[in-house]
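Model it.
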Amino acid sequence: MALRGLAGSEPSSRGPLEEAVEAAEEREAPVPVAAAVAPEDDEEDDGRGLLRWDGFSAWLHCVCVVGFDLELGQAVEVIYPQHSKLTDKEKTNICYLSFPDSNSGCLGDTQFCFRFRQSSGRRVSLHCFLDQFDKDLPVYLKKDPAYFYGYVYFRQVRDKTLKRGYFQKSLVLISKLPYIHFFHTVLKQIAPEYFEKSKPYLEAACNDVDRWPAPVPGKTLYLPIMGVVMKVRIPTCHDKPGTTQITEQADTHISVILPTVHEVDLFRCFFPVFFHSQMLWELVLLGEPLVVMAPSPSESSETVLALVNCISPLKYFSDFRPYFTIHDSEFKEYTTRTQAPPSVILGVTNPFFAKTLQHWPHIIRIGDLKPAGEIPKQVKVKKLKNLKTLDSKPGVYTSYKPYLNRDEEIIKQLQKGVQQKRPSEAQSVILRRYFLELTQSFIIPLERYVASLMPLQKSISPWKSPPQLRQFLPEEFMKTLEKAGPQLTSRIKGDWIGLYRHFLKSPNFDGWFKTRRKEMTQKLEALHLEALCEEVREQHICVILTTIEKG
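Modeled.
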């Protein structure tokens, strides 16, 4: 199966919007958009359908339209393309996660993101060949086979012609790709027009996506969508962390240039709690159970994603739900009091959770994320026992005592930026660099020690099995910190040893070490194969030379 236009192609010349819609309407044998998904057992395929949607499937699983039915409540009105498969459980999750809770009062247009578990038993995608691109991605951008992302553009406006008095509808992009900023930008381009023009417009937009080059890391991609051309670059694992490789020079063909595909406005999300940002970094690093209580799905999802992003380039290996509701299929699993709360970050908006999750050890309650114009009244760290009422004030409710001393320098720097009205984007760059340096100072000693577990190259012999990695010994690692610890690269003082001990018991260490061990084992196997090939080559040369001498 060939990939079309792998990457870096020149911007395609797209006709005006009317031509795109007209082409969609006149296309031979169009797929009806107004119908729900085809039955699960419908395997009808003329060989053209799936091939035709290869380009689309590299980026999206499907597009859903979720509306409100007076009798049924939230309902999936459209799943497109029609051959896309979703189980009933997945459709139910999408229905409830695509609308804000009724208490949120989101009038107008709202964008947010959710993440949900893929149903077990789903067949492997025919487009798994695209996973070859996954190996070139940074570890924190690799697809998780067990989860889907949902990117939502929700509109709620008054409409007296409707019985309920409101027009309520969500356009939702379902994807395996964690490219939050990219897909929110796509929705901004197509959702407002879709709500006005409906069916043909959605099909025309999906046809555009189907013509996109594959999402190859490291290539500059030009992606046309309904008369607009977006210029993007997906990062690679070889990029220097904290940098962007895309150029922003003027180009008459380009309408939108995205310097990032996945990052959120970090400072805006941490703005109410930046006095405690280092403590929150520790909680995320250690995989502690964490709840974000916010007034709307937009605030909850952005804050959860900012927390997950703050330990980059380390991957957050536990589960996280940017927006979680009482209807979620994992609600009972995550709110039970019969066992300790799991390692997960939940973003919630329903006041019911203030009581249901009262037993969780760490809760962040935030108000509206207002633009950074003045130094906010910083929320305090409060005891969990104070979180009793539904109208509890914003704050960080925890009994956690940080291992590291607070870095006053970064707080002064951010405060100064607020006073000087420094743009939020610039503040985010400062905060992201701070988190990056903190994470790198923490992870470098671990990387150095793990590298020492690799056998010497001289121990690799073609006559023996590949040598094994040495065992990771926590106490042996701790001894290395005295001379080669984080104090070499970080000015922050505190109980680094205690932080490492806690981290070694966390899901993030488990995931990180399994990944590193797999990479190193593959490297050993490759070196062993290379030694075998060299030995075979030398033997062949000997045979040839012997034959020549005898001849």
